[in-house]
């Protein structure tokens, strides 16, 4: 982003551009969002003593039980089963709420980032106005991300409930929100807040990993080729996702309906313990495939769209200013 654009475009311009890019990017890959959420909330219980899958008991001795939820073995398997059971619309369940959440989160993030950055710079000496350290930039981004989560996490909670509900039980955005409040109180709309606040470190990990990998793989090289920059960006995003995936899975678990017979989870540590107890340690990384695919595609599409929307807004803003100046 050039200094001329920074000086010319107001905060709301960056906020709207970021929200627009995020909505378009997430709408493009939304089925991957459904799949990664379904994979992350499913629990296949095993015999903890032997480590094997529980064998069914004698049907005559077994009490009638609710039907087991669909189990998915992979991204392709999930897409096929959702499409077969719910039709194409099943791959877009909860999409309106999700896009509202994406738009509000990104709008809030870019707006708050501009706000806290401007305030921080106002406290610095004029000489340092255009030169923030990496630590300062990352800290400001973390503060903006935390503020954005505080204001927008209720939409994420409601969307997760919609994505993990059976088609027959699925309700619209407002009805699902009322259902959450009725079951868990108003605080239920902020389920997973702690995990969400911790996850604001994801961009910091991505940026740090990018710099470390660049120094290790391309030492002394000042200008990278496009494929080199893309490779480093994908690699750093992958490392950040691997580092934070257990928290991502725990956050989804907190925001979704708990498994049958399990009380509402109270913390992301409790969710992780439950998953490890019933499925093993590696299950903290379930859904990592679509999570990576979605993250890389969304990040690329978001930034590509955001840059172009900013340019359009910049031209419109300058045109409006010139018209008013003539008057």
From TrEMBL:
<dbReference type="GO" id="GO:0015217">
    <property type="term" value="F:ADP transmembrane transporter activity"/>
</dbReference>
<dbReference type="InterPro" id="IPR018108">
    <property type="entry name" value="MCP_transmembrane"/>
</dbReference>
<keyword id="KW-0472">Membrane</keyword>
<protein>
    <submittedName>
        <fullName>ADP/ATP carrier protein</fullName>
    </submittedName>
</protein>
<feature type="transmembrane region" description="Helical">
    <location>
        <begin position="12"/>
        <end position="32"/>
    </location>
</feature>
<feature type="transmembrane region" description="Helical">
    <location>
        <begin position="138"/>
        <end position="160"/>
    </location>
</feature>
<feature type="repeat" description="Solcar">
    <location>
        <begin position="132"/>
        <end position="216"/>
    </location>
</feature>
<comment type="similarity">
    <text>Belongs to the mitochondrial carrier (TC 2.A.29) family.</text>
</comment>
<keyword id="KW-0677">Repeat</keyword>
<dbReference type="Pfam" id="PF00153">
    <property type="entry name" value="Mito_carr"/>
</dbReference>
<feature type="repeat" description="Solcar">
    <location>
        <begin position="9"/>
        <end position="119"/>
    </location>
</feature>
<keyword id="KW-0813">Transport</keyword>
<keyword id="KW-0999">Mitochondrion inner membrane</keyword>
<dbReference type="GO" id="GO:0016020">
    <property type="term" value="C:membrane"/>
</dbReference>
<feature type="transmembrane region" description="Helical">
    <location>
        <begin position="91"/>
        <end position="112"/>
    </location>
</feature>
<feature type="repeat" description="Solcar">
    <location>
        <begin position="224"/>
        <end position="312"/>
    </location>
</feature>
<feature type="region of interest" description="Disordered">
    <location>
        <begin position="50"/>
        <end position="70"/>
    </location>
</feature>
<dbReference type="InterPro" id="IPR023395">
    <property type="entry name" value="MCP_dom_sf"/>
</dbReference>
<keyword id="KW-0496">Mitochondrion</keyword>
<dbReference type="InterPro" id="IPR052217">
    <property type="entry name" value="Mito/Peroxisomal_Carrier"/>
</dbReference>
<keyword id="KW-1133">Transmembrane helix</keyword>
<keyword id="KW-0812">Transmembrane</keyword>
